[in-house]
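During the practical work, I worked with a single protein chain and the tokens that describe its fold, as given directly below.
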Amino acid sequence: MIEVKDIRKSFSGTEVLKGISTVFEDGKTNLIIGQSGSGKTVLLKTLLGIHQADSGSINFDGRNYQDLNVEQKRDLRTEIGMVFQGSALFDSLTVEENIAFPLKMFTNKSKAEIDHRVNEVIDRVNLINANKKMPSEISGGMQKRVAIARAIVNNPKYLFCDEPNSGLDPKTAIVIDNLIQKITHEYGITTIINTHDMNSVLEIGEHIVFLKNGLLVWQGTNKEIIQTNNEDVVDFVYSSELFRMVRQAMRDIISK
């Protein structure tokens, strides 16, 4: 669980995060959504320690990040997995070498142990027979699976995903969403996803945080977002006629 209390962050005198407080629960897919400039990327980077909060606290299972020393922060980093926008694979490394990278960087495992673990996660994300392929030889959806495998290879407690469906077709995006959610449930991971994909919101949004102008203006589940009358949320999520029709249809079903 990651508990955020009154986080504030400014750049050049402009306050981007204006007192954000929420709880990201373990075993759930926690989504951060909002328009460009809402503060969602800054919040994600602050949670990761890339930005340092001006005030407030971030607690990782009771550990206040601001109170940790350099060594303790490094230890915490080994508990975090990251799926980057665009996958961010090493072009010069094979699939298995990409996945093995965190184990070589952060652990003292033997080559045999690393190979065993790499094959375990390759099986888990359904990348059979892809070990020796280069990133350029596999599809965008497969590259995303490699990125997920690399993120979970070290058995993280916390999984961060930055726009994991970026560049994917809708069908593949749903497959990736479902894979992230299943892994989250299986391992009891605290998963935080920064996204603008409304299909993801409705498909796997077990806890959704909606930001606007640096403020948390709504939070709830994918079922609750269908029912909400919060004008900011409705305008953002259901900006297209298609989503408005879906919303009405689902509300009609729920009300029966």
